[in-house]
Amino acid sequence: MSNCADSMSCVILAAGEGKRMHAPHSKVLCEVSGKPMLRWVIDAARAAGIEKICVVASSDDVKQAAEGCEIREQKERLGTGHAVICAKDFLLENQDGNTLVLCGDAPFIDPQTVRDAYAQHMASGAAVTVISAVVEQPGAYGRILRQGDALAGIVEAADCDERQRAICEINSGAYWFSTRALVEALGTLKNDNAQGEYYLTDAVAAILKSGKGAGCFAASGADIVLGANNPADLLLLNEIANRRAIDRHLANGVHFLSRDGVVIGPDVVIEPGATILPGSILYGSTKVCAGAKIGPNSLLSNLTVGPGTVFNASQGYDSRIGANAHIGPFVHIRPNSVIDDKVKIGDYVEVKNSHIGEGTSLAHLTYIGDSDVGRHCNFGCGVVVVNYDGEVKNRTTVGDFAFIGCNTNLVAPVTIGDGAYTAAGTTVTKDVPAGALAVGRARQTVIEGWAAKKLQKYIAKKSK
After folding, report:
1. Is 179 contained in some domain?
2. What is d(CA 349, CA 367) in angstroms, rounded to the nearest whole number?
3. Which portions of the chain are predicted below pLDDT 50?
4. Among residues 121, 249, 332, 364, which one is catalytic?
5. Are residues 27 and 167 in the same domain?
6. Model's pTM, two decimal places?
7. 69-100 pLDDT, tens per residue?
8. Is 376 in the active site?
């Protein structure tokens, strides 16, 4: 397939507003398993070997989401045919090859279907090959009419007679075209219909009428036709995607106690022998290594978790955790953090843009930001790295085998040397040499009898 990459291009229709989704963004950016539908479609085209991709958009958010693709704007939404017309210059640049047309809100088109349909398209010499699917309830989808193996036409559901309504093979809205034939057919489109729109199916009809040849490739699964026009549709897509993901990982040797609350994105990698507990959500390019245990009730986004690590009831983003670490419960790993092997991070600890060395313990109630912490350090309860002075974020360095006492404030920029100690309650504003003890707290003063009078008044008040 890669040898044909120069002859293949793709146009993705992504200009629909989708008001029925009631979303603050364009419809194609609604997420399925944590990934915008448009990115599902773009990635499928790329995985099939197509490098030249053009996204037809009408809003800035879609243009930004289509990173790495060419963009053409559809200022007026006048139908699927009009959307392809908006990409006419892109088609002309690639007119000696073949163009795949996809819908940006149909995330389940898959690379294998694209490749197999292309193979049939090339072998048959057809000017257009419609990708179809067989469904139990064809509903409002256009029906595929065949003449033997060839395509005889596409009939919209509203125009079907009784015999045609019984047909279960439907148009998916995905097509392979000879690009030159597509450009010619686009020139014949008219909008003399009730909606005043230009339909891409009319381009298929024009190619059929010209006698250039049209084929139909039936996809192996019915889900490729599914899109989302409302929140209920989007929920169905998520349920299907998640069921598929769990089934795929089960087949690969991943352990699950229950499917309850488990969500796994399409790009997540989980090695055999890992365990995913209920309520765990894994998004983006997350990778979970063998023997790791995730959850319950954890959220991972673009997070790598090393072998044998426990990640319990915590959240982690855009970071890396080594082997045999123990994270949680209630830990927040913020972006750009590296947690080395055998680190222990306990409840209510936040780590941000920091490197935590092997074997270090951050037990509880601690904030570590913009820091480089050495090996086998111990942080007591309530330690805070004061990394922000109101203008800039400053870094803190803690050497190997350092002991940071409870309720210590490390006011950045500051360095704690190897094996140094800070006393409980110390605010550190100057570097602490290796092996030294830093004490920075007020001397205690005791006033005898002072509390007795206060206590008598308090007891009297509470006794009323």
Report:
1. yes
2. 6
3. 1-3
4. 364
5. yes
6. 0.87
7. 999 999 888 888 999 999 999 999 988 999 99
8. no
